[in-house]
Specification:
mainly alpha; transmembrane; 314 residues; Cobalamin biosynthesis protein CobD; membrane; two-stranded antiparallel ribbon; single chain; 11 helices
């Protein structure tokens, strides 16, 4: 571990952070990640011009992430345990996943496509203005499964590795990948560093998330495992593929396929197997993410108990 905290301390802070997030949710004003996004946008506008864009992108990533990560590490080392929990709450997005997804479910069940399209556009980058109910349900389920890793499990993993500073480093890097990691003319070179670093930081958490989805699939474990092993390699993202394929297999629905980006239909590889997603599958995806969170907390607490019991005999 890259922090002076003991395993029992990390596990206790992990539980406290998740429970506080579920209780409080994200702040309605002055969200720290929103502020970071505004700063990152200004850095990008200043540096994403001229030649050697990949060098400028690497410099931009360094300026945006490393000072805040270093400040978080220094502050947590001097302020005490409580700041680790505060940093975790600032980074994790479990409650916000539910708060953004459930209004889509409510709108779809009420037959209010206009609201469902608007709400879905808040959480995905694809075009939703002409999307029908199956498209919106698919987008909502995919977003929950993928962001279960990006907004929750990756953060928890790096918190266990390096405390509050680890959570901050991961979340900021993941945010920059979401902002700059596009394969278009503007970001193809500039965003390369952000995309590659996020791939590295997410490699282990994504596979632990996929494994968790498989373990919690019940009688569908074999299907979830097969979808992971056969479908994930076809997906463009090395980390989103395992997470979404195993999650779709666990839910027994068909995800992936056609989606509209910037007015163009993109045929993505299939994920999962079974019927098209419905509003109910968004709810099931949320429950899978929530159950996985509790699984990770139980494992962390179990490891902490073992460490406590073994300590006198070490």
């Amino acid at each position: 571990m890259l922090t002076g905290l003991s395993l029992p301390q990390l596990a206790g802070l992990l539980v406290a952070g998740v429970l506080l997030d579920l209780l409080l949710g994200e702040p309605r004003r002055w969200h720290p990640l929103t502020g970071f996004g505004n700063v990152a946008t200004r850095i990008e506008l200043a540096l994403n011009r001229g030649g050697r864009r990949w060098v400028r992108g690497a410099l931009a990533w360094t300026l945006a992430v490393l000072p805040l990560a270093a400040l978080s590490w220094w502050a947590a080392e001097h302020a005490g345990l409580w700041l680790h929990a505060v940093l975790l709450v600032a980074c994790i997005g479990l409650r916000s996943l539910r708060d953004h997804a459930m209004p889509i479910v409510d709108a779809l069940r009420a037959g209010d496509l206009a609201t469902a399209r608007t709400r879905t556009s808040w959480i995905v980058s694809r075009d939703t203005q002409d999307a029908l109910e199956p498209d919106l349900a698919k987008a909502g389920a995919e977003s929950l499964l993928e962001n279960g890793n990006d907004a929750v499990f990756g953060t928890l993993f790096w918190f266990m590795v390096a405390g509050g500073a680890g959570a901050v480093l991961f979340r900021l890097a993941n945010t920059l990948d979401a902002m700059w990691g596009y394969r278009n003319e503007r970001f193809m070179l500039f965003g390369r560093t952000a995309a590659r670093i996020d791939d590295v930081l997410n490699y282990v958490p994504a596979r632990l998330t996929a494994l968790s989805y498989v373990l919690l699939a019940g009688t569908a474990r074999g299907r979830a495992w097969r979808c992971w092993r056969t479908q994930a390699p076809t997906w463009s993202s090395p980390n989103a593929g395992p997470v979404m394929a195993s999650g779709a297999g666990a839910l027994g629905v068909s995800l992936g396929g056609a989606a509209v980006y910037e007015g163009q239909v993109e045929q993505r590889p299939p994920l999962g197997t079974g019927p098209a997603a419905t509003a109910a599958d968004i709810v099931r995806a949320w429950r899978l993410v929530l159950d996985t969170t509790f699984l990770w907390l139980v494992l962390a607490c179990g490891a902490a108990v073992i460490a406590i019991v073994a300590a006198p005999h070490a």
